[in-house]
Glucosidase II subunit alpha
Amino acid sequence: MQIFAIFYWFCLVISAKQYLFKSCEENGFCKRNIDYCRNKLQTKISNYFIEDAIEVGSEYAVISGLLTKKLPNSDVKLPFQLSFLENDNIRFTLDENRNVDLNINANRFKASEHVLPHELRLKDSTSITIHDGAEKILLLYKDFKIEVFVNETLQMTINEDKFLNLEHFRNESDNQQQLLPEESDFNMFRDNFKDSTSDKLPLGPESIGLDFNFVDFHNAYGIPEHSKGLKLEEEIYRLYNVDIFEYEVDSNLPMYGSIPFLLVSKPRLSMGLFWINSADTYINLSKPKSGAKTHWMSENGVLDFIIFFGESPAEVNKKYGEITGFPTLPQLFALGYHQCRWNYNDQKDLLEINSLFDEHQIPYDSIWLDIEYTDNKQYFTWNSNFPDPSGMLDELDLTGRNLIIIIDPHIKKGSKVSNHLQKNGLTLMNSENDTFYGHCWPGESLWVDSFNPGSQEYWDELHRLSPENKVFFDNTNIHLWNDMNEISVFDGPETSSPRDNLQYGGYEERSLHNLNGRKFHDMTYSSLSKRLESTQRQRPFVLTRSFFAGSQKSAAMWTGDNMSKWEYLKLSIPMLLNNGVAGMPFGGADVGGFFGNPSKDLLTRWYQTGIWYPFFRGHAHIDSRRREPWVPGEPYTSIIRDAINLRYTLLPEFYNAFRESSISGMPILKPLFYESQKFSKNYDIEDEFFLGNSGILVKPVTEETTKEVTIVFPDSEIYYDFTNGKISSRYHTQSVKVPVTLSDIPMVIKGGSIISRKMRYRRSSKLMNHDPYTLVVAPSSTNSASGSLYVDDYESFDYKNGSFLVANFELKNGKLTNKVTGTFNAPRRIEKILILNTHATKVEHDGASLRFKSIDGNLEIQNPGLHINEDWNIVIKKDLVHDEL
Ligand SMILES: *[C@@H]1O[C@H](CO)[C@@H](O)[C@H](O)[C@H]1NC(C)=O
Ligand SMILES: *[C@@H]1O[C@H](CO)[C@@H](O)[C@H](O)[C@H]1NC(C)=O
Ligand SMILES: *[C@@H]1O[C@H](CO)[C@@H](O)[C@H](O)[C@H]1NC(C)=O
Ligand SMILES: *[C@@H]1O[C@H](CO)[C@@H](O)[C@H](O)[C@H]1NC(C)=O
Ligand SMILES: *[C@@H]1O[C@H](CO)[C@@H](O)[C@H](O)[C@H]1NC(C)=O
Ligand SMILES: CC(=O)N[C@H]1CO[C@H](CO)[C@@H](O)[C@@H]1O
C-alpha cells in the first residue's frame, strides 16, 4: 500500500505538503554527536574513565563497574557491564541511574528485553577462543577503550576515536547544563525541524554514541533497510522506520524496517556487531585504508551491543540467530506464487482470477486482498462486495489455495474496535497520556499499542475462532498482511508518530520506535497461532512491511512500494541479499513494481527474477492496469508460465533452504562471499546468488535489451549450465559469458550438488504433496556429490516434535546412496535420477539392473523403483568418466 496515493490525498485534503526526512544535521541528537566528534578530533582528551573498583563475577565471565564521565564541575557515574557469553560472543552495556520524578518513565529503554532471551548464557572464563587461535579482549581503563585480538592480531577497537558519548540526564531549568567542552547544545530541549516543533523532549538530550573500528576489514554489509547495493559504502546510514514514499535508487534515507546488525568479513574471519537499540539511529561508515570505521549514534536508550565472531559469515549468522531467533519455517504454500493487487474488487473478480490461473495452467498458492475489501477501511469487517467470504475461502480451498487479507495498526475512530481500544487504554497515547489521533487510510484513526499485553488479549479475541468471527477466521486458509506498521501517520512528523507520544510502560514512542512494526506483526502471529489451538495448529503466515531484529521469527517482509522500472528490479536483489545477511531472509519485492505499468519485457524479466525471491508475490497499485501473467499475451505469458513452473519444480530446494535457515540463520539467497571467502571479487558481487546450500547459482537478467550476461564463479569447482532448469554446457573457469534471449534465466549448478525437484504441473503446491521426485546429480571435479532433502507435513508444527525426515543423498566411488534420518512417513517415489556428465555400462540396485539412458553425456535413470524415505544404494558400473574441460 502506498504513499503515492497518500501524496495525492494530501494535495487534495490538507494542502500540498512536502515530506522531508530529517538529515543528521537537522536531527538534534545526531548533530550534537557529530559536533562532539569533530571537536574530539581536535582535543583528543578522554572524558570517560574507569576509576572505581571493578567487580569480576564469580564465573569470571562478567566484569562490571562504574564508568566515570568527567564534567567540568562534577562527575556522573555510569554502570557498565562487559560479559563473555557462550559461543565467544561479547556483550557490553552502559546504563544511567536516573532519579527523576516525572509522570513518564524516565528509565533508559532496554530494547534487549524485546530481542534477547531472558538469560544469555555466560562463558566459564574471561578468555575467549575462536577456533584454535588465542583470542584476547583488552579493557583499557584510562581512556576507556576495548581492543579485540584474534591470533595475536588486533581485529577491532572500540572507542579508539573517543567518540563515546552518553548524554546524561539534564534538567532544563538548571542554569548549568554541565556541557563538556566538546559538546554543543543544539536542540537539546526542543526540536526546530519543521514537522516536529511540538516535540516536548521531556527528558532533554539523552543520546548515546560510540565508535567501532574493524582492522583490515574492507567489506561491510547489513544494517538494512536501504535502497542501496549489497556492500556498504562510505555513507551516513539511518535506521528509523518510516513510510517512505517515492523511495529512490541508491539512497541512504531510512525505510520501512531496520536491523542494527553489521557484518564485516575477510578471509578466515567474519565479525558481527549488533547494536541493540530501537530509537532513531545513524551509522557513519567510512573506509580508510586501515579497514572499516563505524560511528553509531542513537537518540536514547541503554548503550548495549554484542559482538560475534566466526570463521565464515554463516557462522556469524548462526550465533546472531541463536540470540535473536532463527527465521520462521513457513508453510510450504508461502513459498509458492502469491497474486496480489490493490485491489481485487469483489468476490466475483477474485474467484475469476482464481480460475484464470487454471485456465492458463499457471500454478499459484494465494490471492490477496488489499484495504478495499473492508467496510470503510474498518479492519475486521467486509464490505458488501464480499457477501460470502466463507464460501469464497472454501472455493479457494478446493485447489489448496489461501486468502491473505490486510489488517493494519491504525483503527478508524468511532469503530467498534477503536472504541474498545480507547476505553481500555490500549492505544498509542499522546504526550498528555490521552488517546492519540492521527490520519491514515480510514481518516481520523487511533493506533493499537502492541506493547500492551491487553492489546494482545484483545487481538486474540478478534482473531479467534468464534461464531462472532465466523466469517473472518473460521477457515484455516486465511492468513494476514500487516502494513503501515512503521507506524505510518499521514499527518505525523516524518510520516510517523510524534516522538513524545507515550506507549505501554510510560515509555516515549521515541525509545520504541523501530520496534513498533515488529511488535505489531508479532502480535498478529501470536493471535493466529492461538486461533486454531482447539483444532489443527497450522503455522501462521504474516507479511509485514516494517521490521526489526527478531522479525525473522514470525514474518516475511517485502521491500515496499516503488516503480515499475528496470533500476528497481535490479536493486531488489542487493536489498534482499542484505536483509538475508542481517538475519531476515524471508523477503521479496513486488513483482512488476508497485506504481505504474511495466513494459511486457520488464514484467517478464521481473517474473524471472521474482521466482528466486524467498517471498514471491506479484502486486500492483490501484491505478496500475491489470497485469496478471496472462495479460501481456504471447510470447510473454508462456515465458512467465515457464518461470513460475520453474519455481514450483524447485520448491523442494526452496523448502530445504528455509529449513536450513530456520536452524542456522543462513540466508536463503546466499551472496557469493558466503560460498567462498577466498577470492576477493566474491565480496563485491551483488547481482548473483546461490539458492541456500542447493548449489544453484543464479544471475537474473535485470537490464533491458540484455543479449549476454557474465556469470562469475566464486571458486574453482566445475559448474554446469542449467539455464531455465535445462542442462547444457559445463564450465571450469572463473567466469563465463552466456548469450540470453528473453526466455532465458541464466543459472548454473555447482559440481558436488544433488538437487531434488518435482516436475509435474499442479494448480498449487499443496496438490504436489504426493508427487514423485526427480534427482539431479552434478558430480564435482572429483566425481562426488551430496545433497539432502527435508520433508515434513508442510503445514503444522509437528516437525518441532521430530516429525520430519531428511534424505541424505551421496555420490561417491561410483555409488549413489540415500541415508534417511527422521521418522516422518513420506513414501514418495523417485521417478528419475539424472547424473550429469556421467557414462555407465550398467546401473544396479540390490544386484538387479536398472534401466538407464545416456543423453548428451548425462546418465538418466528412469523409474528406479526407489523412494526418498528408504535407505538404498545404486551402483554405477564402469568407472565414472569425467570429461576434462
Ligand atoms: C563520518 O566519518 C568520516 C570519517 O571518520 C568523517 O570524515 C566524517 O566527517 C563523518 N561524517 C560526519 C557527518 O560526521
Ligand atoms: C497513562 O494512562 C494509562 C491508562 O489510560 C495508565 O495506565 C498509565 O499509568 C498512564 N501513564 C502515565 C505515564 O501516566
Ligand atoms: C587463527 O589461527 C588458527 C590456527 O592457526 C587458524 O585456523 C585461523 O584461521 C586463524 N584465524 C585468523 C583470523 O587468522
Ligand atoms: C528540574 O528542576 C526544577 C527546579 O529545580 C525542579 O522543580 C524540577 O522538579 C526538576 N525536574 C526534574 C525532572 O527533575
Ligand atoms: C509435541 O509433543 C508434545 C508432547 O507429546 C505435545 O504436547 C505437543 O502438543 C506436540 N507439539 C506439536 C507441535 O505437535
Ligand atoms: C528505485 C526506484 O525506482 N525508485 C523510484 C521510486 O519512485 C520515485 C517516485 O516516482 C522515483 O523518483 C524513484 O526513482
Observations:
- Residues 1-18, 126-134 have pLDDT under 50 and may be disordered.
